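Protocol step 4 of 5: obtain the predicted structure for the target chain.
Materials: sequence only (see below). No template structures provided, no constraints applied. The aim of this step is simply to have a reference model before the mutagenesis design in step 5. Sequence pasted as it appears in the construct record:
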Amino acid sequence: MAPSLSPVDWFVFRPLRYPNGDWQPDDLIYEDCFFPTADGTMLHGWWCPTEVSAPTVFYLHGNRGHLASRAWIVKRLQKFFGWNIFIFDYQGYGRSEGSPRMKCFLKDAESAFDYLCQRQQLVPADLLVVGRSLGGAVATHIAIQNQTKALILECTFTSLLDAASVSWPRWLVRPVIMGRLNTLSVINQFSGTLIIGHGEEDELIPFEHGQRLFEKASDPKYFFPFPEQGHKKHPPDWFWQEVGQILNSHEF
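Step 4 output (structure tokens):
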């Protein structure tokens, strides 16, 4: 019997399941990967290779949809940088088994990261982690735990409670959210290169979240505002050009 969902699980997650979406995207080379979590739940990911010698990126997507709906993002990053990219779905998303549960969210990412490193025989400290929105909080956890070489955050919240309080009264969501996914409290523990981008008109995760994360973080760190841009908009091309220059200067 599948574990029951908690109130926070019902409140937070907006997954999309297979076969909804385009699971055979054009112009993307990918390999299906299935791997277990610590409790035996099978997760699904895509290994999207370019060249053996190219840098590898661990990508953590946001709340809605699944990995197939991010195929265009993978293609875009590969066009800019030629990276090898691994992207996976949390429990209950896409082809991954189970249901999305907050208590398993970080563990899912840990299992995926360990699988990637073992599969490709990679050293964690050499990897780049990219996370968007909710995925940015998870990306921060993974980057700190493994002290990866670099971390890129797009439109990421200071904490899940702060993010939920934008749309709901804080007194109402506090008992449900509690202290979960508090990125602000831990981000200064990351010692690699940190790059943060955030839309100035983000209506879901306000711009000040990105500012506060940047202020709390340790050097080396870089912050880029996206003028007149809301949450649904992805970073403009100039942002990735800046990212490329920064990473080159840090020999990524």
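Step 4 remarks: The domain at 7-249 is CATH 3.40.50.1820 (Rossmann fold). The chain is about 35% helix and 20% strand.
Proceed to step 5.
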